[in-house]
Amino acid sequence: MQQRPQGSLLSLPQSPAAVPGGWFAVQTKPRHEKKSAAELEEKDVEVFLPLYSAIHHWNDRKKEVQLPLFPNYLFVRITESQNERALVLRTNGVLSFVGTRGAGSYIPDEEIEAVQRVLASRAPFTHYPFLNVGQKVRIRGGSLDGVSGILAAVNNDRSLIISVECVQRSIAIRIDGYGVEAA
Fold this sequence. Notes:
By secondary structure, this protein is of the alpha+beta class. It has helices at about 35-40, 80-90, 110-120, and strands at about 5, 20-30, 45-50, 50-55, 60-70, 75-80, 95, 105, 125-130, 135-140, 150-155, 155-165, 170-175, 180. It starts with a strand and ends with a strand.
């Protein structure tokens, strides 16, 4: 099923050097992503909650709803101070940092920026199973210039798989018509 991309709670970041700290994935209770993200923003924590639009059908109506791209996860940019970690963990709906023993694992800026750029481009995408293998490629030209991911064949079309390794989630975007080079 193709998803219609939607903006996130944050715009694209400034340069990585302009924003202190790093990105970490946070696991939330089911269906608490938006509430947790809003509460973290109230606490002045930089949050990225990627959302997409989907049409939900009920017996009596249809409605367009905003759903988390990666259910039960959101991303925060914090320093590694214990105070900031505690602030995040004391947020309603937040269960833990994703990583070894709940300590959290740093997520490279490139992975977050790739997801942000795909959402901002409004290019159609599909959810895709997380991959550990495959050739890493970079798009050359167009609105997605520089986005890196794993090249895969899906239904005989060329797709770029963009993965956030820490939460083992991926999205696929068709790259027919884009120039692609090895990363």
